[in-house]
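Notes from the 1:1 (GR / supervisor)

We went over the backlog. Supervisor wanted to see one worked example end to end before approving the batch request, so GR pasted a single chain during the call. The sequence is below; no edits were made to it. Supervisor asked that the structure be written out right there so they could see what the output format looks like.
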Amino acid sequence: MPTDDLEAFLNPPDSINEIEDGSDADKIASQIKAALDAPRDSRYQQALVSTKVIAALDGKAIRIPGFIVPLEFGVDQHHVTKFFLVPYFGACIHVPPPPPNQIVYAEFEKGFKLTSLYDPFWLYGTIKTTIVENDTATAAYTIKVDSIKPYTEE
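Structure output shown during the call:
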């Protein structure tokens, strides 16, 4: 994400900073709701829906980690071919989606068998700064995936 959006996330409103660790309000869904309830003109609120991208990434070959939210399957209905890559488990499924500039829309023509939504992956491919919207979420980046590997720290 661009530096100014990152700065907004690192400096949330006092109401979010004052949440007690481990409380119900500390759960990610509650934090997102609180953030969405923040004044609409706050920089933090703007960052939550930002489609600003890092233009220098456009057309670059990259490796990026994340969790997969399936959108489409191949003709055999067993291989995921289109999906969102999100920064944390459960994004777009159980809670409101992350900001668009933290979501990558991915297409992997040959597809792959996803056995668990809990498992993170590395995507390898070429990223574009293209916005894709659907009923689930909006992504500010797209990637044409060349390969996918289970996530490991390297």
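Supervisor's comment: The radius of gyration is 16 Å.
Batch request approved.
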